[in-house]
Design a protein that fits this description.
Layout (H helix, E strand, L loop, with lengths): L4 H16 L3 H14 L20 E3 L6 E5 L13 E4 L11 E3 L5 E5 L1 H10 L4 E3 L21 E3 L6 E2 L3 H4 L7 E3 L4 E4 L13 E3 L4 E4 L3 H4 L7 E3 L4 E7 L11 E3 L4 E5 L13 E3 L24 E3 L6 E3 L13 E3 L4 E4 L14 E3 L4 E4 L5 H4 L5 E3 L4 E2 L15 E3 L23 E3 L21 E3 L2
Parallel strand pairs: 2-4, 3-5, 4-6, 6-7, 7-9, 8-10, 9-11, 10-12, 11-13, 12-14, 13-15, 14-16, 15-17, 17-18, 18-20, 19-21, 20-22, 21-23, 22-24, 23-25, 24-26, 26-27, 27-28
Antiparallel strand pairs: 1-2
Length: 456
């Protein structure tokens, strides 16, 4: 049985473009792009040979043979002789089926032919545009609004300045991830960001944004998982109850602004389970000084930073109960007092870093510290008023790398405990500004990893 000519033509067409790769226009544009970027040849050894779908860092659609992904990150980053680079946007025009373009870490300074970039954005099916860690200014963001399929936009670690150009950004209704961090954006956080209801990740950290966080707008982002505005110049009162409609939230970072964060009033119930909460230097619960009560029921926490907040009162073991994933706890520079107790039942705590320095803790160190924190790598307890002996259980911390206790008061060390004799991974031990007595090491000590030892 003979195949109809039309079917034969279709099979031939599919074989040519599906098996032999991208179009002639795409192939030519790739070679010109390589030349304009001055990509070192060792990154693209296969370029120029055969069909371009077999070239390094190029991905094609297996059915159509069209280029759908270009992964060009780090291709100019490590060669200091290459200098700045301007992308000739006309070279992008043949790639109308492109889904992902990664040009991050390339010393890219701007565009040549902005009109070509506009034309390409209007016909493009791009879903991921990754331009982070370059030296871009304000030439690209006003034109991104035409990428109607865009899901991920990363322009973090660049040189963008001034107010955020909202006319383009706020049209990206399919956007799921937006990273504007480590730039010099200033002015208010645009209210229209709340219209990007597909957003899952919003990174605005390390800029110069000022004014209040538009919480009524942010509350519309019901798919939001990650929200960070750390290290800006934001001010005003933020009640965490404003986040209660965001049930998918996992990470919140409001640190190092001029904010006042309230967690107790008005009363609310958290609908989310956080993995990371950073509220350092947030004047947290200014009127009551208490540790946020809702944290006692946050069982998925991996990182918790409440440092530099002048928190008052006693430390509650409820903050550690049923938190087997917690790796980092930072309570530095508060006004917490009383004993530092630990739960008696150890559920295999994953804690690797604990900082309770610069508080008013008193009494003895918990006898079960070593067993409750078996994987602790960094312990900082300086500038408290602890007394008594170093618990023998500390010697069980085989994986310790950095132990800093340089201003605690431990007037007597139990000689027979030799609590540090077998911490073979201990690298740094600082015990300065104490009134230590007795023996710390025995003749059988096995501290082969110790690099720094300070007693003075």
């Amino acid at each position: 049985m003979e195949w109809p000519p039309v079917l034969l033509f279709f099979v031939f067409h599919l074989w040519v473009y599906g098996c032999f790769g991208c179009s002639h226009a795409e192939r030519s544009a790739l070679l010109e792009l390589k030349s304009s970027m001055n990509i070192p040849s060792y990154f693209v050894t296969s370029w120029g040979r055969g069909h371009c779908c077999s070239w390094d860092i190029v991905t094609c659609n297996s059915s159509t043979g069209r280029v759908i992904e270009l992964e060009l990150r780090y291709k100019r980053f490590f060669d200091t002789d290459l200098g700045d680079w301007y992308l000739n946007a006309s070279l992008l025009l043949p790639f109308d089926e492109l889904r992902s373009l990664d040009l991050s870490y390339n010393k890219m300074k701007g565009l040549i032919d902005e009109q070509a970039f506009k034309r390409w954005s209007r016909v493009s099916k791009l879903e991921e545009l990754l331009l982070g860690n370059n030296i871009l200014n304000n030439t690209i963001l006003p034109h991104v609004g035409a990428f109607k399929f865009l899901k991920i936009l990363d322009v973090g670690h660049n040189k963008f300045q001034g107010p955020l150009p909202t006319r383009g950004l706020c049209k990206l209704k399919n956007l799921q991830e937006l990273d504007l961090s480590f730039n010099e954006f200033e002015g208010a956080i645009p209210y229209c960001l709340g219209s990007l209801t597909s957003l899952q990740r919003l990174q605005l950290s390390y800029n110069q944004f000022s004014g209040k966080i538009p919480m009524l707008s942010i509350a519309n982002l019901t798919s939001l998982v990650d929200f960070s505005v750390t290290n800006n110049s934001l001010s005003g009162l933020v009640s965490l109850s404003s986040f209660c409609s965001l049930s998918k939230l996992e990470d919140i970072d409001l640190s190092n602004n001029d904010l006042e964060v309230e967690t107790e009033y008005p009363p609310w119930n958290a609908t989310f389970q956080l993995e990371s909460l950073r509220l350092s230097n947030c004047r947290l619960n200014k009127h009551t000084g208490g540790i946020p009560y809702f944290l006692y029921n946050q069982h998925d926490l991996i990182e918790l930073d409440l440092s530099h907040n002048h928190l008052l009162g006693k430390f509650s073991i409820g903050l550690l109960k049923n938190k087997t994933s917690l790796e980092t706890l930072n309570l530095k520079n508060n006004s917490l007092s009383g004993s530092f107790h630990l739960p008696l039942d150890s559920n295999g705590s994953a804690m690797s870093s604990l900082d309770i320095s610069n508080n008013y803790f008193t009494g003895q160190l918990p006898f079960n510290m070593g067993t409750f924190f078996p994987d602790l790598g960094k312990l900082r307890m300086s500038r408290n008023s602890f007394q008594g002996s170093i618990p023998p259980s500390l010697g069980d911390m085989w994986r310790w790398g950095h132990w800093t206790c340089h201003t605690i008061t431990c007037p007597e060390i139990v000689t027979r405990s030799h609590c540090l004799t077998s911490v073979v991974s201990l690298q740094v031990l600082m015990l300065s500004n104490n009134s230590l007595q007795g023996k710390i090491f025995s003749i059988s000590s096995n501290l082969t990893g110790l690099i720094v030892l300070v007693f003075g």
